Amino acid sequence: MSPPPGHETGHPPPAGYTWGDYLAALVEAHGSLASLAWALVERSPTPDDTQSVERALRRLRTRGQRDGGSYGQKLLRAFGIPAPIEARLRWMGLYHSPFNDLPISMCLDQLRLWDRPPVSASRARLWVLLGRASVELRNRRFDEAAVCLRDAAGVPGAPDAARVEIGLAGGYLASRTGGDVEAALDAVAALLPGAALDAGDRACFEARLADQRAFQRNRAGDYTAALALYEALPDADVHPFASYRRDAGVAYGLWRAGRGDEALARARRACDHAGDGGYTRLRAMGLLLVARIGDDAGALARARAIAARLDDEELRVRADRRRP
């Protein structure tokens, strides 16, 4: 029996996405290997004969996750990574996806699995870099996060969502390392209006931008200005992440304004949004806010337990700052 596509006889199938998987998706889209070879020839500035191309593609099928050579690069330049695969990678690269609520060890396992050819040889690798940047920020490894963001910014042809993500992550990094936060956030604000985004991503990005700007106001003691930023966000619940950011920010501002009962109700509503969206980290942050506003030792203990289960250093530091 011949081995399945994507691995050599005597070796187990590689874990993760292989050249064999990539070829199978392209063949399905074009109808046959011969049709794919023709399509590649038509897109090549120095075309080979189709029979030679077919033979090269058959060899590429067996490359597993090793370097794909010149034909691997030709395919990636011509057709890119299939949309369903890029969607998975995008999910790992956007901070406002529930991927970043998984335990750090699990996030790293997934990112390492995908950081291999053909993905690592494609433009789609920028989502892996952004996922790694988020993990490094959660670990408070700021130098490593800066390298990931620099490398992601160097990938040509990045989609608008990735450019906004790079800008927001860069702003967060600057807030932790003494960089120019406002310059980074101003660049995001200029990019957002014309960016090609779906409604959910736009709501999340706008909430994240307001949240990062408000953080700077709160840090400076201008709680009224910070609250105004959160209250200016839309009331509609377009996405649970965006709704959490809005309500948690409003809760903090109300608490600072001496409106404790309203603040506590809003903080609990923020926790509900986090739970509805499957955001474990956000729920822990919401519990920390409930603990702070309501002097709730039980909420603090639950938040600390979540931080420990997620092995999340950033979340653990936040929890340790609170006192029963």
Describe the protein's architecture and organization.
With 324 residues, the chain is mostly helical. The chain folds into three domains: 19-79; 82-197, no CATH class; 222-324, Serine Threonine Protein Phosphatase 5, Tetratricopeptide repeat, CATH 1.25.40. Helices cover 70% and strands 0% of the residues. The protein is built from 17 helices and no strands. The chain has helices at residues 19-30, 33-43, 50-61, 69-79, 83-93, 104-114, 125-138, 142-153, 160-177, 181-191, 199-219, 223-231, 240-256, 260-277, 280-294, 297-310, 313-321. Helix 11 (199-219) runs antiparallel to helix 12 and helix 14 packs antiparallel against helix 15. It is elongated. The N and C termini lie far apart (65 Å).
Strand content: under 5%
First-residue to last-residue Cα separation = 65 Å
Care to count the β-strands? Answer: 0
Mean pLDDT reading = 93
- Residues in helix, %: 55-70%
How large is the count of helical segments?
17
Helix/strand class:
mainly alpha
Provide the succession of SSEs: HHHHHHHHHHHHHHHHH
Taking pLDDT < 50 over at least 5 consecutive residues as the criterion, the unreliable ranges are: 1-9
Query: How many strands, what sense, and barrel or not for the largest sheet?
Result: none
What spatial form do the alpha-carbon principal axes imply?
elongated
Number of individual domains: 3
- Tell me the Rg in angstroms: 23 Å
